[in-house]
Write a structure and sequence with these properties.
- With 451 residues, the chain is an alpha/beta fold.
- It has 4 domains: 169 residues, FAD/NAD(P)-binding domain (3-Layer(bba) Sandwich); 123 residues, FAD/NAD(P)-binding domain (3-Layer(bba) Sandwich), CATH 3.50.50; 86 residues, Enolase-like, domain 1; 46 residues, Rubrerythrin, domain 2, CATH 2.20.28.
- The protein is built from 11 helices and 28 strands.
- Helix 1 packs parallel to helix 9.
- The protein is globular, with a radius of gyration of 25 Å.
């Protein structure tokens, strides 16, 4: 009977176990985790600080799920050595190893702390990162114990903004400091980033953009931050959410080939026989992924590979995020700004509709009539169409109807008002607006027409 050992009970490790069990009812599956909690969702960690959720709410699969699937899970144990030649893994503080036939490394990632003077020295003294449940509990305890009233979040990405919202919900004066000139620089373009910034500021959260943090101020306790342009901001707690980096210590110790992540091939095999890797800790074709869809896609491939059924190959994962960010629905998928990849004009076409009153932004990216990416902010109806048709040729009428970006044709002179090429949606035009021929808004027909 094959024994599969998985290091890490995150989404990558847990879904690997689930998919292995679906393919093989007999294999021994053992998961080992440094954390003392069963697999939980990290996206809601900020809500633990504001007490909107409990630890129990975060747990995705309860113990019964593991029992039913015959997956053995050992929590709160650190594996600090792998001996691939003997197929052994060793626990910290223990001399007796455990054996494996196949090993899956799902060690995930750790928070990235930028080169900021005094940042590492002030960890625990008012500087924190948020990556796990214990981090959230430590942050909450520090706020309560020190009666903190002012907070700074360094990083305007997904977790940084959710964290800012929950810290604000705790009653703190909250400021987000972002290095890039817009929020969510990995998901949004400049225009949509500007709309999100207004939403954040309307919540009472201050936003500082194009801001490089040079130093954490304070000695025994944090007093604030200093930017490279000389500006200083006071705070009693500084939360750094500036991206992630792969956890590679175990892989390097075991002699696996690494770069920014553990190097894997199309079957998620590492450079060492019978050792596989998955999730935030891997690098494939010079790319790394820090998103849940990649982990879930990879888990199906690794399950087949481990069981010797190399029927599925990994080709990378299209970047995709669909979630609620500070209470607003957001989907960002694929290429969202051709200018970022210096591809404007090379067969690219952009359809865009902005509804500032309704906080809705829709942007569709086409290349040679194929759907290559989208931003849908404050819009849910178009998500199924976009996900289904990525990288496929599209019918323009069908696309416009699904996304809700229309052309309006004057019944008098034939003039076409294309919402995708104008600053205002047709519905937002003034009531006294007139066509060049003198016709009013009521004299236009929607294209494609309503069914």
């Amino acid at each position: 009977m094959m024994k599969v050992v998985i290091i890490g009970n995150n989404v990558a490790g847990t879904f690997s176990a689930q998919n292995i069990r679906m393919l093989d009812k007999e294999a021994e599956i053992e998961i080992y985790s440094l954390e003392k909690y069963l697999y939980y969702t990290r996206i809601k960690l900020p809500e633990l600080i504001s007490e909107q959720v409990t630890i129990e709410d975060l747990i995705v699969f309860k113990q019964e799920w593991y029992n039913t699937k015959n997956i053995k899970t050992t929590l709160g144990k650190k594996i600090n050595r792998i001996h691939p030649e003997h197929k052994h893994v060793f626990f910290e503080g223990e001399s007796e190893p455990i054996e494996y036939d196949k090993l899956i490394i799902a060690t995930g990632s750790m928070p990235n702390i930028p080169q900021i003077k005094n940042a590492n020295e002030m960890i625990g003294k008012g500087v924190f990162t948020l990556r796990n449940i214990d981090n959230a509990l430590e942050i909450k305890e520090y706020i309560d114990k020190n009666k903190v009233s002012k907070a700074i979040i360094i990083g305007g990405g997904l977790l940084g903004l959710e964290l800012a919202k929950q810290i604000k919900n705790c009653g703190l004066d909250t400021t987000v400091v972002e290095f890039f000139p817009r929020l969510l620089p990995r998901q949004l373009d400049v225009d949509c980033g500007g709309m999100l910034e207004k939403v954040i500021e309307d919540m009472g959260i201050k936003v500082v953009l194009s801001a490089a943090t040079e130093e954490i101020l304070g000695d025994e306790k944090v007093k604030g931050i200093k930017l490279k342009d000389g500006r200083e901001f006071e705070a009693e707690i500084v939360l750094i959410q500036a991206g992630i980096r792969a956890t590679l210590d175990l892989a390097r110790q075991a002699g696996l080939e690494t770069n920014r992540g553990i190097i894997v091939n199309k079957y998620l095999e590492t450079s060492v026989e019978d050792v596989y890797a998955i999730g935030d800790c891997i690098e494939f074709n010079n790319q790394t992924w820090g998103i849940i869809p990649a982990c879930i896609e990879q888990s199906k491939i690794i399950a087949a590979s481990v069981l010797g059924k190399k029927t599925i190959e990994y080709h990378g994962t299209v970047p995709k995020n669909t979630l609620k960010i500070v209470g607003i629905d957001l989907t960002s998928v694929g290429v969202f700004d051709p200018e970022d990849i210096d591809q404007v004009g090379a067969g690219w076409e952009i359809l865009k509709a902005v509804d500032k009153k309704g906080n809705c932004y829709k942007k569709i990216i086409l290349k040679d009539n194929k759907l290559k990416g989208a931003i849908l902010f404050g819009e849910k109806k178009a998500i199924p169409y976009v996900n289904k048709n990525m990288d496929s040729e599209i019918q323009e009428d069908e696309l416009r109807k699904a996304v809700g970006i229309y052309k309006w044709k004057c019944e008098g002179c034939g003039y076409v008002y294309d919402e995708a090429k104008q600053d205002l949606l047709y519905k937002d035009l003034p009531e006294d607006w007139k066509c060049k021929c003198g016709n009013c808004k009521d004299d236009f027909q929607r294209q494609p027409p309503e069914e």
